[in-house]
Design brief:
DNA primase DNAg catalytic core, N-terminal domain, 5-stranded antiparallel sheet, about 10% strand, 16 strands, 6 domains, about 55% helix, Dna Topoisomerase Vi A Subunit, Chain: A, domain 2, alpha+beta, DNA Primase, Chain A, binds zinc ion
Amino acid sequence: MKEVNRMGRIPESVIEEIKHAVDIVEIIGRSVKLKSAGRNYLGLCPFHNEKTPSFTISPDKGIFHCFGCGEGGDVISFVMKHRNMSYPEAIRFLAQEAGIRIEGDAESDKSFERRKRFYEINSLAGRYYFSELYQSAEALAYLKRRGISPNTAKKFGLGYAPRDWDGLLKAMEKEKVAPEELATLGLVIANKQKGYFDRFRHRIMFPILNRSGKIIGFGGRALGDDPAKYLNSPESELFHKGQHLYALNFLENKEMKILLVEGYMDVISLHQHDLPFAVASLGTALTQEQAILLAKYKKEIYICYDSDKAGILAAKRAIEVFREIDCTPQIMRLEQGMDPDDFIRHYGKEAFQKAMDNALLPVEFELSLNKEGLNFNLPKDRILYLEKAKRLFIKINRKLIRDEYIKRFAKEMDLDEETFKNEVESLMGRKVRKNIPMRKKERKRELKAGLEEDVLRYAMESRAIFDKIKGYFTQDILKKDEAMELADFITCLYDEKDRQKINMDEIIEHYRLRGEMSAIIDSIARKREREKGVPEKAVDEMIMRFNRAVLEGKKQHLLCEIELLSDAQMEEEEKKRLMKELLTKMHQLDIELKI
Ligand SMILES: [Zn+2]
């Protein structure tokens, strides 16, 4: 109780700031494997045992809910339940995640100071390694051999950890850093017999920075014959391998691309060749959290892994991780046995960009892999390839795209397109039938959501209709982000003076790589095909529907306010008065809605 009172002093605005600063998907995604489902995410509930997912997160609303056991709430209640924390503990935990200091809260001050100290120590260690680099002819020679310029080395803060067992220990002693502190960050290792000794020895050092440019850990590459070629800092309070990417701190807004590679050296080499959007995961396979993080930038994602067996396997896994969150990367294939660093040093920037232009979509990539080693003169090989291709095509949810692939594939393999398409679809039919209850539910939801699609479909039909209805491109009508985005794009297209209508193909082409847009675009395309044209009367009817939807929106707002008010802690008389006001408004709305 005392705790709660003490926390009661934390202004509501700070709690709001914290909730705003943390990402509920990121926080929950650390412990629950998530799948994208439209605007929401779906996963197996961490609070009860289940085999099919009924746990949902709505990032827009900032809440989670489990339809299986009924657990639900905001990010704070998730942390409380999942980590078994009290309310103040959860607030402090999230504040720390967001790097927000809760003024006047002793606990928060303490943890803030501790982290500040850790960053300071990492920065001192980074400076030590950096200065050691220029003392070591061997380390400098290595960088030179790898083609890394002094400027690039400086940009990435590269350093060298000498061979000594206590080089860092001694240097840090002068800076008044205790061995225990270094051990907490994994920079030194505590040993019962030998005491403390340096973790990184005779290695090129790569400081790993978070997005705000602070060192959270280090990677070290062995210069000698240490069997561990790469060594990373262990997990610590600052360093969580699965949640960061190397060089993400350099990614600028103006870049439209992200290039995901495997190694630190690849990243550095690409940056040096003026491709400053290369990043790498930190010595692990791509995690779901990293994929979510990358997808949030809403840029085109390219995967360029090493062109060997391990690299291809890693790329296939990464594709699956992205697929789960409905994100479509493009995959580059380099010459056999090459990594991005080899490639760009050998062929240069232009050739690399050309390889980016030739990057494959996931299906194309897998088709090209399936083809390897087959001889199409042998019926057996040919049939094997066709069967594998069918199984790839059924994974494509969007009919338009699937049909396009089938068309091209049939042509390439000299097949009858219709027959092949039927075979793919009957294979799908077998899969789909299992899920009929779900499909029915989806269809119902689609009917309700039909208004958004109609608005956009009508707006595309002609400039005259667009002018009539564009005033309704508001959040009340276009509730989905995707619908709003599409409305913006349509408005942009009509900015061209002579433009009279908008073709479906333009929309499809523009959003080709944006998986999250596919549901709404497909549904518009289907309706357009079904109902050719838009009669005048329909437009007027639609405007009436709009007005109604605006009123409905107001009603929803009112209902929320009433709910909030009934939970609010305030004087009873005042509460009654406000409630009466709200109910009167509600009554008026109901009358308007009946007309
Ligand atoms: Zn549950």
